[in-house]
Write a structure and sequence with these properties.
By secondary structure, this protein is α+β, with helices and mostly antiparallel strands. It folds into two domains: 10-167, Metallo-beta-lactamase, Chain A; 169-216, SH3 type barrels, CATH 2.30.30. The chain is 21% helix and 35% strand. The strands form four sheets. It has a six-stranded mixed beta sheet with strand order 5-6-7-8-11-12. Strands 16-15-14-13-17 form a five-stranded antiparallel beta sheet. It has a four-stranded mixed beta sheet with strand order 1-2-3-4, covered by helices on one side. The longest helix is centred in the middle third of the chain and has 11 residues, at 120-130. The two termini are 34 Å apart.
Length: 216
């Protein structure tokens, strides 16, 4: 994890001495280089969830060191099979990768206790109609900070709980960028500043960083 961006870079392998794949590159890569050497891996590809700088910063380093191919789509290599699930909202071309039906790399759409900012309707659809339909035991490795599971987020993520009707919408009056709004959901976020779903007076819904919300 990058100490400032709190973004993750991942290395996944089918077995010791087998095939390895990187997922995103916006974190210090030396521990992953060491793992490649220690496990004797042949690294073949880099998968990219989306092209924000905190997720692609190490692309050049990985390409130069391993001569690998960057992929924005499904992939079969060695004993690894990646489904590429379109999950727009944070970015139009955002993808979540599911490896061997067991592990989901969710980028900046789904986090532990939170969701990504961006187009509200698309984020909701990507989370509820795509990711929440994965098996509950699916391991979730997000683009920032702590891992989780689909089942945990179904039960405990504040956004998901309201979207599925388990909890009521909030009614607290707040201001966002000088505009009056209703705070529908407040959740923790990976940066410690919180994440909010707000509804402006005209009925527009938005997901914004907690630092933008004036409460009280």
């Amino acid at each position: 994890m990058h100490p400032a961006w709190l973004s993750n870079a991942y290395l996944i392998a089918d077995r010791e001495g087998g095939t390895g794949v990187f997922v995103d590159s916006g974190a210090p890569l030396e521990p992953l280089h060491e793992a490649v050497e220690r496990l004797g891996l042949m690294v073949t590809h880099l998968l990219t969830t989306h092209a924000d700088a905190d997720h692609v910063a190490g692309d050049g380093e990985l390409r130069e060191r391993y001569g690998l191919e960057i992929v924005k789509g499904p992939l079969d290599t060695g004993g690894l099979r990646f489904e590429a699930l379109p999950t727009p909202g944070h970015k139009d071309d955002h993808l979540a990768f599911v490896c061997n039906g067991e592990t989901a790399f969710t980028g900046d759409v789904l986090f532990k206790d939170a969701v990504g900012g961006g187009n509200f309707a698309q984020i909701r659809e990507s989370v509820m109609d795509v990711l929440m339909r994965l098996p509950p035991e699916t391991r979730v490795l997000p683009g920032h900070t702590d891992e989780t599971t689909i089942g945990r987020e179904w039960e405990r993520n504040p956004f998901v709980r309201v979207w599925r009707g388990e909890d009521p919408e909030g009614t607290e009056r707040v201001r966002v960028g000088g505009r009056e709004a209703t705070l529908v959901v407040w959740s923790p976020d990976y940066d410690g500043k919180g994440k909010a779903w707000v509804r402006f007076h005209g009925g527009e819904d938005a997901i914004v960083g907690g630092s933008r919300v004036e409460r009280g």
